[in-house]
Protein 1
Amino acid sequence: MVLFLFLITGIIIGYFNLVSKKVLNKAKSVPMISLVAILFLMGNKIGMSPQVFKNINSIGLKALFISLGSIMGSIIFMRIIIVKDKSIKERQEI
Amino acid sequence: MAYLLILTIALGILSGLYVFPVEMLQHIEQWISWGLWLMLFFVGIEIGQSKEAIKKLRVYGWKVILLPLSIGIGSVVGALAVSYFVKLPIWEAAAVGAGMGWYSLSGIILDQLHSTQLGTIAFLANVSRELLAILLIPIITKYTNNIIAIAPAGATSMDSTLPIIAKYTSPEITALAFISGAILTALIPFLVPFFIQFA
């Protein structure tokens, strides 16, 4: 819920230009820096969970194939829907 | 950029293993949510500035729901399709696939409702989905700069992979990616327990 609060606040600020372009330009690299920081911290979390490492060989392979299946499934179903639905197809060509 | 992000995670894992003590885990969780808030704030500004996209969203209306719908169905069907080959019972595979990249939540739910092993599989599968999405989004957009790029991201297209989607696609697709991710994020807490009740 807090996530939505930050996001919606950002959208309102962006939509009504409540913060000057100058300030926004200075903060340009903030989103990418915070992404790198989050990913570093997420790595730490993985490193700190022994259960993730214990069975990583047998379980990791299963997990990888499930994720590949889900990704392929999502891509295929989206392709089908985009082909079927002209409005979405036109939209991506804009 | 994707390689930098993967390297960052690898460094984080090493640091989690050898540098930071496990007692820091709670702080790390807190820092991650703060970082996410900050990031979402800026992503929000970016979406808000693309007024054209917001206008178009009003025009297309409910049809936007077709995007998360196809991603959701594809995630579960795709997981079911590989379940036989990895010797995972179908409902367990469906529940893992329904995590759609939200590894913390799906991992915890399946650990609680089923087993630690399935929780770990869900965690790893959805971590892997997020990492693969980070790798795939720049590759997909290289060949076709279109909405297909948001499919691998699943629910993460509203937060962790949104900056990457924003970088490699248009503000309009970024806005759609957020809406799709937000709808999926709202569905996951219901879908994962729904599928695992049959296991």
Protein 2
Amino acid sequence: MLSTSSRLSEILFEYPELITVVNRFGISLGVGDKSIDELCRESNTDSAFVTALLNICLGNESAETANLGDFDSRQLAQYLYQTNNYYRDALLPNIERHLNSLVNHSSEADNLDLLRKFFYEAKRDLLDVLQEDISHLSPPVDKGLHSDSITIIEKGTATADKFFDLANFFVKHLKGEYDHNLCRGVVTAILTLYKDLNTYFTLRGML
Amino acid sequence: MRPSGTLAIISPDFLITKGLKSVIQSLGDYKIKDFPSFPETIKDEADYYIITLEQYCIHISFFKPRTSRTLLLSSSPLPSSDEIPPHIHPRMSKDDIISTLQTLLSPQNEDESDQAILTLRETEILRELAKGKSFKEIADTLCISVSTVTTHRKNITGKLGIRSLSGLSVYAMMNGII
């Protein structure tokens, strides 16, 4: 379990997937030997909140037990807002880049073309959900689960399932010989997004 | 050997929990934990979950990936849908409740990933789903009930590990089913 006094460099060595999470709080690489608390003070962020989120991302704690409700809902909304933009600006283009590279370097591309079309469908669905959600995340944020939120969470979870399916096609159902490294890049990029989406919509339910 | 596993009942209603425990223990050697609300420490340690509809909606991101291992407690009948887990409600007969519980706890639910081969019937259903037909249309085409179609759909998802309808269509195309 991480605490506010944990040294961030040690955490990022062990869990590099958290780099993107701390980035969303304005903490960039080059963290030296500073603790979460010290880095959060520099970026004017609540270290207890950041630590709670990192523990949730690592599965050390469930969103329900982390008592995020004790924090200002604006903090959570701000984090989700940053995350929403990050999906659009970084994670989705990252998958697309890897997928295009794989298709372009493959001679037997029939299956891959289908999977790329499936990706574009999932991407379009996700962008729709993110676009719909962004207005709810802008201040002032009303606390409490309302019908719009439930709809967004349901749509978002269904969209996350499509990304799960996409990864599953590569891991379990892919036929033919493809570049191993490029395939790994695609799967890693998709699963990174899928796991992050699950956390996003869990946290979204707490707003 | 009697079937076994761990099961979490999440309901604030003491009597319902007590009654369910009694019925489930008659079906096998299940280790049952009960919680009045979504527990803080359970995470993914239970094999099966029985939970109120309200709690399910609040924690949908947790339960959605566990649909085949989840049973809802509803106060009234819910429409049959592949998007939500099966449910029981107070107006169901004793036999129907037991049958639904047995389906939840049946061995085919214990491993969703170890069966990649679809039966002929499942392949037929998959083909119709990939064509974009509704459960009702498929039931009419194949002369079976909608609930049978729903069950096949769940089994297909369990075997292939593919959750979305679009994903199933892609699988059907990749494998020459359509």
